Amino acid sequence: MSRPTPLRGVHETLGATLTDFAGWLMPLRYGSESAEHNAVRQAAGLFDLSHMGEIFVTGPQAAEALDYALVGHISALEPGRARYTMIVNAEGGVLDDLIVYRLAPEEFMVVANASNYPMVAARLTERAEAFDAAVDDRSDRYALIAVQGPRSQEILATLTDADLDGLRYYAGLPATVAGRPALVARTGYTGEDGFELFVGCDDAEPLWAALTAAGEPYGLRPAGLSARDTLRLEAGMPLYGNELSAALTPFDAGLGRVVRFDKPGDFVGRAALEPLKDVPPSRRLVGLVATGRRVPRHGYPVVVAGDGAVVGEVTSGAPSQSLGKPIAMAYVDTGLTGGLAVDIRGSHEPVEVVDLPFYRRKK
């Protein structure tokens, strides 16, 4: 049975189409997917992300434990800052991509994907055993609400006196929002400016209501998983299970920059990853733009136009509201830059290979 978030009643009242996602009952859409997508690009969208996991690592050696457990240089983080990183297995395969927040010198919050956070908590616990650090999965205590879009700061500023102007990208601060305590982070998964608000479960509904009321004059709309997926696809952001998996290393995904070999000490996966840092992968992640109207979907083969030789596979695909064309991300053989098509149920539909991302916001 799918697990509800603290905002289930709100979603039902709004008439959302609910669906199972990673074992959670989540809003797929509230009405028009395209309207929700466009609201985030043009004004603001309100998302329930309470299915994500929040794992705390604390203690005198918490930083050193995370340096060992993850590929990033976590001990270099200043309090109040966040970092995108990954946890890998001994072979270098990606187990999950994460955001780590340093809340205090000896306190970190690791945010993991919904489908993976119990595993991440277990792996962190194992890897922290040799350190003076404690791992505590507090996911059940938190709701997570995101406000994303060019008007998100204006909306949030009506509900808090926190210094939003001074809050940098990938940073967070404790604040009071609509009278509720929250960790306000300038992070997101849409390609737009925005904020993610970590709050207690009991505060989720009142905060959602306050944000809805504050955002109405600015064009804010609730947005579901469908819009979140097309937004992150346009922004070229990977999704675990699509662009990332245990069968792929960070270098395979074009994200080798997150692996920090210059940090002190060893880390899990280092021996497997270090020989790969200067070796081009056999396949690379690219963007595809369809020349027709048919949409390349996850798992469809990428082929050479003409002879049909399979040279890759689509990882994510959808119609793009911003481009007005179907788009996709795909792993294709390194060196191929054109003359490709996607096999859509036996029909070879031509595509253009482009660099990621498809969309960049104007700053």
UniProtKB/TrEMBL annotation:
Could you say which residues bind substrate here? E196
Enzyme kind, highest EC tier: transferase
Q: Where is the GCVT N-terminal domain?
A: 9-263
| Aminomethyltransferase C-terminal domain ranges (all copies) | 283-359
Task: List the GO biological process terms.
Answer: glycine decarboxylation via glycine cleavage system
State which Enzyme Commission number(s) the record gives: 2.1.2.10
Q: Which Pfam families match?
A: GCV_T (PF01571), GCV_T_C (PF08669)
Matches recorded under InterPro entries: GcvT, GcvT/YgfZ/DmdA, GcvT/YgfZ_C, GcvT_bac, GcvT_C, GCVT_N, TrmE/GcvT-like
Instruction: Give GO MF terms, alphabetically.
Output: aminomethyltransferase activity; transaminase activity
Which reaction equation describes what this protein catalyses? Answer: N(6)-[(R)-S(8)-aminomethyldihydrolipoyl]-L-lysyl-[protein] + (6S)-5,6,7,8-tetrahydrofolate = N(6)-[(R)-dihydrolipoyl]-L-lysyl-[protein] + (6R)-5,10-methylene-5,6,7,8-tetrahydrofolate + NH4(+)
Give the residue spans that cross the bilayer. Answer: none
Mind listing the UniProt keywords for this protein, alphabetically? Answer: Aminotransferase, Transferase
Check the record and name the HAMAP family matching this protein: GcvT
- Give the protein family: Belongs to the GcvT family.
| Role this protein plays | The glycine cleavage system catalyzes the degradation of glycine.
Q: What is this protein called?
A: Aminomethyltransferase
Taxonomic lineage of the native organism:
Bacteria, Bacillati, Actinomycetota, Actinomycetes, Streptosporangiales
